[in-house]
């Protein structure tokens, strides 16, 4: 999670705070947080298989989010390079 939060901090510096992208990231992280609460509940109730299913879904969601963030970071870098390159 540290790498993910560092990546969000990096992107927040180059994207307006009201951007649809950051709203999507926030929404996905909120959903992951709810999933973790659900997994905790399953574990507390001894429902190990159910907790495993929820954790696998969270893992997949976070992987997809990481891929999306990487792609968006590449797009921002490309746009920034094009902008700075045109000034020369």
Provide a compact summary of the structure.
This protein is mainly α and 88 residues long.
Structural write-up:
The chain has 88 residues and is mostly helical. The protein has a domain of 49 residues. Helix content is 85%, strand content 0%. α2 runs antiparallel to α3. The radius of gyration is 17 Å and the shape is elongated. The model has no long low-confidence stretch (mean pLDDT 82).
Radius of gyration: 17 Å
Name the average pLDDT: 82
Q: pLDDT below 50 for ≥5 consecutive residues: which ranges?
A: none
Number of helices: 3
Helix and strand content put the structural class at mainly alpha
Question: Helix and strand succession?
Answer: HHH
Q: Could you give the distance between the termini?
A: 39 Å
The biggest beta sheet, please? Answer: none
Overall 3D shape:
elongated
What is the number of strand segments? Answer: 0
Beta fraction: under 5%
* Helix proportion range: over 70%
């Amino acid at each position: 999670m540290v790498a993910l939060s560092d990546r969000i901090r990096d992107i927040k510096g180059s994207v307006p705070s009201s951007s649809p992208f950051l709203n999507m990231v926030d929404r996905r992280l909120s959903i992951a947080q709810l999933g973790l609460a659900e997994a905790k509940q399953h574990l507390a109730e001894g429902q190990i298989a159910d907790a495993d299913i929820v954790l696998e879904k969270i893992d997949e969601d976070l992987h997809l989010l990481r891929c999306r963030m990487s792609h968006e970071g590449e797009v921002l870098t490309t746009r920034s390079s094009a902008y700075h390159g045109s000034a020369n």
